[in-house]
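[PROTEIN RECORD]
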Amino acid sequence: MLAVAPPPPAERQQLIAQARSALLSQRPLPAALVEPWIVRSWQRCLAHGHRPAQPVAFNTVSAATVQRTADQHATLLRAARPVLAQLSRAIAGMHYFALLTDARGVVIEVQGPVDRRDPRARAIGRVGIDLSEAAVGTTAIGAALAELQPVWLHRGEHFFDANSGYSCAGAPLFDPQGQCVGMLDLTGVDVPERPELRHLVARSARAMEDALLQQRPHALLLRINWPGSTLGGEGDGLVALDADGTLVGTNSMARQLVPQPLRRPGMPVHCSDLLALPWPLLFDAAQRQPAAPLDLPLWSGLRLQGMALRSHAARGPARPTHAAPAAPVASGTAPLRAAETALIRQAVQDARGNVAEAARALGISRATVYRKLGPSKQRSAAELEPKVAPALYK
């Protein structure tokens, strides 16, 4: 199927004008004129009592506001600034500049060639200025925060007439728990349309999210992707774990590859809730040099590939490997437990490391298999049968 070529710039502006006229006069709006999310934003602006011809006020920002904004978002800024520096170099010749906002749409960082002689660029290129939809109508900033997806907005697609000189691309930013914490915006004034910037801004936002995750204290970083993909690139899902296998956080790609179970806010998630294998094997794999790809079975039956990397900042000694001496069992029921564990280990070995298949053969749940095989805080990884591990590696 051939792609439909976009209309010429002059014709596109006419189509946008027709869409605005139809909306304001409450006539049916042809779906092909503008994207649905733009229409939704226009409708929200109208519902707030705004009209396109009214002036837009860009409030003055005090020095105290600038400092308070920087202090409140120090963690996000530390993760974002190296990416913003690279982004500024990429757009240096295009007369666009970058804005980083918080989740409310307040600017917390500006980088790039802002033309201070142009009052339109000067008005928005300031830390502390409120560029939310409620304050300045339809923009890439407000739309990205409302729609939680990358957007492109050109000239007359802005709600207020006073903003029709801007062109902007925006993408939301998510923290390691999947909450929106802000957005990244690329804006130009009286510039040619560049819809490809939507891809650039989304890619840069993902890089910021990865940096935000990796600066959190963690013991192990697991890179994951579909089998056949090359691990180590920007398209990897990232899963950060603490020393007990509990999730510290994930990036957006990891949340797509491995949906997390429903839970109450603040409840921790263990990697065994996501991966159908004894989790200490991940720490064992992180000790191998060079790092080797892992076969990662999911509870759904799907399989991913992964690479486990131990954090250089992790404190304390590495977790014991399978070669370490087994921890003694003090319970009087040790013989019974040992027989039960041996039976489960044999079933996993017979299933070539497929925990779900072993659970079906035994007539128990996968969670029970993990609980019996996976070491708790009192049981070391050395208790696992060494023969089980190779089946989980490529």
Confidence is low (pLDDT under 50) at residues 315-334, 375-394.
